[in-house]
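for the record, two folds in this file. i put them one after another cuz i was lazy. first one right below, seq on top, structure tokens after. the second one comes after a little note so u can tell where it starts
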Amino acid sequence: MLLSVLVPIVAWAVGLAVTAYVAYRVVRAGVRDGIREARSERDPGRGPDRFE
């Protein structure tokens, strides 16, 4: 009985944690790209397009 209650709760919690982690990584990558793009606009010598 206890196991049949705990397994779905643990599975839901793990799924929620994985979803939150992936969302965090996506947001952080977007913030980093935004900062990099802003730097390249402000200072053309910096940023991803400096080697072109």
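(here's the note) second protein begins now
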Amino acid sequence: MKGGCCCGTPEENTFSKRGSDFIENSSCGGVPNIYRARSCFKRFLWILLVLGGFGMTGWQCYEIIMKYYSNETATGITVSYNSTIIFPAVTICNLNPIRLSAAHLNPELHALFVQNYQLNGDASTVTRNPTTTPATTTTSTTTKAPGGLLGGGGGLIGGVLDGVGDLLTDVVDGVDNTLGSVGDIVGNVVDTSWVDKLNSSDYYETKSQFLQNEEAFVNAYSKTNQTTKEAMGHQLSTALLSCDYAGFPCSPQNFSFFTDPRYGNCFTFNTGVLAPVATIAKTGPSHGLSFELYIEHDEYIKELSASAGIKLLMHNQSYMPFPADNGLDLEPGRRSSVSLSLLQVERTEPPHGTCHEFSRDEGIQVNAYSELKSLPIEYTDEACYKTCLQLNIIKTCGCCYPYQPCSGVALQSGLDMHDDTQFCNISNTDTTSCIKGIQSRYNKNDLGCSDICKPSCRELMYNAQISSSLWPTNPGMSDLIDRLKVNDPSLKPKLGNMTEDEKRTFIRDNVLKVDIYYQKLNYETISTTPSYMLEDLLSDIGGQLGLFLGLSVVTMMEFVELFVDLFIISIFKCCNPATKVASDKSAWK
């Protein structure tokens, strides 16, 4: 034998010999051609091609790796079918937050919004005081002396002349009054022109009267205890005339209750707290929720309600409803059909996305609404953002923004900084200025709320299509009036004294019907997934190596074998110096 099976004879164990063997026998397409080239020009071309291939491969591999670490995502839409589907929670709020006849339960609210009203006998009958001043008229009498046909100051001609004079006087006075009225109108137009308002430096700083009324209400309402809040608002026992779910009757006992700072008493059906969450297996109005509501239009306070009707929201059972931000406004005198379709959104977690799946305990730490006992509230980014804003207002301004909760674990770090933290008085200039400063930083994302309030990895939404028709029909008026009298006995004398036209107008202004149902049992899923995975990276790198260098996994193993052999030769030469000298001498011969 000439040598060991591992490295061959000493004469063969040189770097140059092993390198020559690799170049001559490599499966890497261009490398053997360098060795076999018959002319220097061809050898130069092959070297150039191989180096160019290595350069292109390196550049393409860099681009591929950068693409992998950019964490790109792809969004896809799939449509699925279920034989049963969860029915959403349905929240209803009257557009009027408190009843006019119950405002006296809060003296501050009574003074703010009922000061232009006069109570007649009891608190349930309220009329407005006159706000117009009766016009004052003056009467002047002229006595004329009797005279003949041409008599001085009298007679026929004198009477005619006096009549002409009076007529001219009336004309002149009329022109003067007309010109004066025109002057007043022109003056008013000039004084209140939009151009002057827009040019004013404080145009966008002055709040509308309606917003001022709302803030004054929320300011006083936030300081009211929960029992009084509920008593002042519209009662579902009075408002709910009929209710059916999938053909079976429901009642106020099937609705959970909470108070909203803007809309007062709100009621939610199918929360999962009072009964298991309802599911539906069929589509159409007969297999959904249907109810009739009496909105008590006569109890509205004009300073707080610009329109009449209800706010309607469809949402997941674990989501906090925010009627001021979301929902539909439905008017009385109509039957509204709300057909639903379910939309599911699925997001990816880091590094390809920013979503986070919050546990119950994690949600409590960042969501002040999650401790609401009447609703099974869990984490939503919307509730988290409101909590984050409230926490920063508490820390900086020392009080709670009255539009949001003022207690809970999520706010405790701010509450601990101040003794006996109360709701802010937003009519106070300094307090309002502090809150506006925090809100400005919030809008610029300077508070870091986006770092805390990550979107949920899975979210359910409901798309609604609405249609409506006049309701009730004229023949159906009498039945509805009978139900009204049973539901609210105080209406009996009032309705009894009305004509048929007045009753019809009363019903159109006060009662509505809503049908909520699924349009289809299909639901869409919008999912975001990583578009470039590790297997894509390896595949693309292999493609580039094969395209520009003709490399494969076998070729890569040849390179590994080369490096192993070179390493063994190095060890062999270090351990056998005599062999190294002999090999070097033979190399010079």
